[in-house]
UniProtKB/TrEMBL annotation:
The organism of origin for this protein: Methylorubrum aminovorans
Keywords, in A-Z order: Hydrolase
Family matches, as Pfam families: M20_dimer (PF07687), Peptidase_M20 (PF01546)
GO molecular function: hydrolase activity
Domain Peptidase M20 dimerisation, chain residue ranges per copy: 189-283
Protein's recorded name: Hippurate hydrolase
Length: 390
């Protein structure tokens, strides 16, 4: 059962939607044009219900199957927001918003789910309800959590939920998935170091916060190297260092900011514990003080085993079993679809974007040739998961 013929016929139209979305990127919850575009399309397709304002600016469309023996509902989710990045490729549909671009492919995700909505509204060859979830603020805003907290799952009776993300470098026409953790949790940390400022020519009279910060940066790498089991996965990255303004002044304070990633709660907790201990004690060894502030981000994205097998089976129907990796290595990036999977069983799959620039890169572009695969996957999940009775 390869790509659905009708969806192949719709691919040019879906691509046009994708290009329109790409040209008009919006950030986090400020996706009013995008949400309006989505809602208008869903109404035009004849969806039975279109609800806006879920999770602030999210949109949910409901399509009922032709058969009416079941009240079961399956959710399909696409993210809508872009990134604060200046696009550098000269595309015909390049971003018209300075400093904003779809550098993660959410324009493609949204367009593919719209394509599935059009197909399902035409055919309705299933028994139950397809719940089409268009989410804002995946890029750091926690829009998935906001939609769940708005009661989306209960309101629309969602019993299982599925998500997808394109992956540059993964061959076109392939899918990859795994049971259990497939993407990491994320935590942000800020380390404020307080020393004693002074003249750079008289370091003995100062407590050099730049030196302290440098030692802390190096020591933090021991968390993954020496505290985490080598069979577990973890990342500690210091991404910003701020200290001083003059070439001859030892600054009074220095600040480090960074991120931690883990696949299990136990590793996540150990990393927080060790980071605070290392920062505080290294600073103390130099006569300085360090305070650590944590900001919790997304939890790990954990696939449910039965739903993972189901999603992989559907993908294999479309591209062939040999083009579906069922035990892919987890990715240490984070994803707020994790909140939906914490409330309902489901699964999250990677789809090949071919040889493109990486995610969050100013030259990235979603591969339109992937559209028939992702759109067919969504449609078959509904038709297979909610089979029409004879």
């Amino acid at each position: 059962m390869p790509v659905i013929d009708r969806i192949a016929d719709l691919s040019e139209e879906i691509t046009a939607w994708r290009h329109d979305l790409h040209a008009h990127p919006e950030l986090q919850y400020d996706v009013h044009r995008t949400a309006g575009f989505v809602a208008d399309k869903l109404r035009a397709f004849g969806c039975d219900e279109v609800v806006t304002g879920i999770g602030r600016t999210g949109v949910v469309g409901v399509i009922r199957g032709r058969a009416h023996g079941s009240n079961r509902a399956i959710g399909l989710r696409a993210d809508m927001d872009a990134l604060p990045i200046q696009e550098i490729r000269d595309l015909p549909y390049r971003s018209t918003a300075p400093g904003k671009m779809h550098a993660c492919g959410h324009d493609g995700h949204t367009a593919m789910l719209l394509g599935a909505a059009k197909y399902l509204a035409e055919t309705r060859d299933f028994d139950g309800r397809a719940v089409l979830i268009f989410q804002p603020a995946e890029e750091g805003g926690g829009g998935g959590e906001a939609m769940v907290q708005d009661g989306m799952m209960e309101r629309f009776g969602v019993e299982a939920v599925y998500g997808l993300h394109n992956v540059p470098g993964q061959p076109l026409g392939t899918f990859a998935i795994r049971p259990g953790p497939i993407m990491a949790s994320t935590d942000r940390f800020t380390i404020l170091i307080e020393g004693r400022g002074g003249h750079a020519a008289l370091p003995q009279a100062a407590v050099d916060t730049v030196l302290v910060a440098s030692h802390i940066v190096v020591a933090l790498q021991s968390i993954v190297a020496r505290n985490i089991d080598p069979l577990d996965s973890a990342v500690v990255s210091v991404c910003a260092v701020e200290a001083g303004e003059a070439f001859n002044v030892l600054p009074q304070t220095a600040e480090l900011r960074g991120t931690m990633r883990a696949l299990t709660p136990a590793v996540r907790g150990l990393m927080r514990e060790r980071l605070a201990a290392i920062a505080e004690n290294v600073a103390a060894a130099f006569g300085a003080q360090a305070s650590v502030d944590f900001a919790s981000g997304y939890p790990a994205t954990e696939n449910h085993p039965a739903e993972t097998d189901f999603m992989a089976d559907i993908a294999a129907q479309i591209v062939g079993e040999e083009r579906v990796e069922r035990d892919v290595a987890p990715m240490m990036a984070a994803e707020d679809f994790s909140y939906m999977l914490a409330h309902r069983p489901g699964a999250y799959i990677f789809m090949g974007n071919g040889d493109s620039a990486g995610l969050h890169h100013p030259e990235y572009d979603f591969n339109d040739a992937a559209i028939p695969y992702g759109t067919s996957l969504w449609a078959r999940i509904i038709e297979t998961g909610l089979p029409a009775r004879e």
